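Title: Request for sanity check on Succinate dehydrogenase [ubiquinone] cytochrome b small subunit prediction

Description:
We are preparing a figure and want to confirm that the structure record we downloaded matches what your pipeline produces today. Could someone re-run it with the sequence below and paste the raw structure tokens into this thread? We only need the token string, no images.
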Amino acid sequence: MTLQLALRNAPRINEFPYPQPFTRTIALSSPRLSAAGGNHTTLWTLERVVSLALLGVIPAAFLVPSQTLDALMAVSLVLHSRWGIEAMITDYVRPGIVGNVLPKVSHASLLLLSLATLGGLFYLIYNDIGIAKSVKLLNLFMKNKIKYRNPKFVESPCKVTSRSQLSTNSARRHVSTEGLIKFLKSKITILEEDHDRINQEMAEQKELLEKALERSKVMEQQRDQAFMK
């Protein structure tokens, strides 16, 4: 009797809390990101394109100097620099840390600085010798270590100078004179190239003007003949 009661009160196998099987859903299609088609992806792609374009634009601008290549280099450099500084402002000048005013002022200042830089570069390109030629002249200037001196400067007679110091000063003056002569020669060469280019453009315009005059004369003759008939 006792054994029957014990078996009757014993828990059944189905009543034990078995752990539930672990299930996981696996998607066969690639997930779609919310920013995949937004402006961030387009801007990132454009930044990479500009960075790769600079690898070809900068050497081409120095090998074949022209206003078109200088303009492309100026726009690419300004955009590349602006995007980099804008990313730093966005990362470090956050509204939650510095407030809402300073980020707006920083972005506005960056925009004005970028426009001013681009305007200055375009002025150098279209009203002077251009970016590439300016860098070449600056390199020549630094290479020869040209120093402009005050012509009104008079050395004090009380200063005692030895022969070695005098020879050193004369050698430096000689080097500076040679560097200045090279600089002036390079400037003259650039001006001659610009003069030849302008003469060629004027000759082409003159030829076009003469052709236009000939066409107008032919049209007038045809009109007179039509009136005579």
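Thanks, this matches our download. Residues 181-221 form one domain.
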